[in-house]
Amino acid sequence: MNKKPVELLLAVALMTVVSCGKDNKPEQPIPGGTTYEWPAKKISRIVHSVGTLDYLTYNFAWEGDLLKEISCTMYDGTSLGRTVLEYEGDRLTRVFPYDGAGIAYADGAMHYHYSSDGRLERQTFMLPLRATDNLCPQTFDEVVPCELVYSYSDDGRVSAVQANKTMDNGNVETSTYFFEWNGGNVVSVTCDGQPFFSNMQYDSNPNPMRFPMGMETMGVTNMIFEGVLGNSVIFLGYAFCWSENNMTTLLSGVGQCSYTYDEDGFPTSKAIGTGNQSNTYTFSY
Q1: Could you give the CA distance from residue 275 to residue 272 in angstroms, rounded to a whole number?
Q2: What distances in angstroms separate CA 91 from CA 27, 113, 277, one per listed residue?
Q3: Sequence-separated (6 or more) residues with CB below 8 Å from residue 50
Q4: Close Cβ partners of 75 (under 8 Å, ≥ 6 residues apart)
Q5: Cys-Cys link to 247, which of 9, 16, 198, 235 (CB 3.0-4.6 A)?
Q6: 275 — alpha (psi -120 to 50), left (phi > 0) or beta?
Q7: What does pLDDT average to in each consecutive run of 10 residues of the chain (285 residues)?
Q8: Of 25, 229, 228, which is closest to residue 129 (Cα–Cα)?
């Protein structure tokens, strides 16, 4: 889980990236408990450029209408690993990463649990805890069970998610995240009554990343999701996959964001400028 200095500098730039979609698909349950058709296009690749350097390349592998794998390589061809998605029928049941050397971490997988009406009810996983707060190197001295428990409003959208972490001494550490919606987009998030994200704004075009994963795609928890999902999907943490449209604001509150679109309205690039640094995400379908 060690990160290179350049990757740390990119943390802000990784916010609010959009990615995957599907075409000609049956309707699927989403965290809000309603149904919708997957976006009309499937992402095959995202290239993240820092200035003129194509720094990271994300590749998406599909099996029929289902996303099966996301892999990531650096500019020099070094693998940052891949993340595998597993299904029962067309419902996502487990997600786990492989590292750059091809070693699977299935024991730390994210497991999905659904209610009888098809809503995402809980996610459970084992969370590695850092022995030190130092970013480099990171070491882990214990693993604890965690769960995310979903609540819904009358319109079927997620209203709250309770994050529970059970420590070795039996104590349960809990945080609750509350979501405010404007139509089909999340516009603010609070945690235990304190503002977390606010004034989130969107374009009017389809978000090709919108698919039924869960809170790990929302970027709102202080749990170490890269320890569960892998380096190849760290960018998912800031994609806000629940929203219908593409976020035009930056969660950091610093910098500018702009898109270009294809003839169907799907993003072909997203440019983020912060200070003297520019980051561009280029999408292939």
Answers
A1: 10
A2: 11, 10, 40
A3: 6, 10, 13, 277, 278, 279
A4: 53, 54, 55, 56
A5: 16
A6: left
A7: 35 36 44 54 93 95 89 96 91 91 88 90 83 53 86 92 90 93 93 88 91 73 68 72 88 84 95 89 95
A8: 228
